[in-house]
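Troubleshooting entry. Yesterday's outputs looked truncated, so today I'm pasting the complete records for two proteins to confirm everything comes through intact. If either block looks cut off, that's the bug. Protein one:
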Amino acid sequence: MFDEGVVVNDFERNAWWEYKGAFTIKTTPEQDALITTYVEQRRRNPGRYNLLSGRHCGGFVQDALRAGGIDPFGHNVAHPGAVFEVLKALNDAGIDLMRHFPVPVP
């Protein structure tokens, strides 16, 4: 529940039977660059994993999307699996995450 964090591909971390699926979130080249920069920064300095504080795979995905200007939740979702399920459901429903869920400007 609390240990050193690491950024790896799900296929390196999970067994094949744990695979939930995949989908693509539409992004612009600029968003791709911002998200990639965020991922690489976290890869170099992942911090500590903490399931209770949101420092987990679901929080990582949410923070990466926010770095690219996409915030479909408006807050951190507590359960890592719920992040995938909600993002997939929005995607399957044809919701454009770039248009409907931009990061709020303070």
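Protein two, checking that the full record survives here as well:
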Amino acid sequence: MSPQSPAAIRRDEKSVAPGIMDGQRYIESLRDGREVWLHGEKVADVTEHPAFRNVVRTFADLYDLQHQAATQDIMTYVDPDGGLDRAQLWDAGATSRFLRRHDRRLPRYAR
């Protein structure tokens, strides 16, 4: 991802958007006109439908952890190729630092 990418943000910028996605942006991203069908019926809004709303909220909460001061350190990292915030999910490194952060992050997902 280039520094000009709308999906990236520098830590020294004040604005949250268009950086790492937060819960509200995630929910809004699901309201993009996609067609979802369940048991032969078209779902009008996956974010409000009883079959999906709880899992949507759970994922939104996980996205929000990336922006909370207490969890940002374990949920995000600064990309060394441009100083951009990234979700830890995309850090596939096998360094000891990565593994320690991964061990701290997993219990947050399990809550």
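Both blocks look complete. Sanity check on protein two: Residues 14-110 form a domain with the 4-hydroxybutyryl-coa dehydratase, domain 1 fold (CATH 1.10.3140.10).
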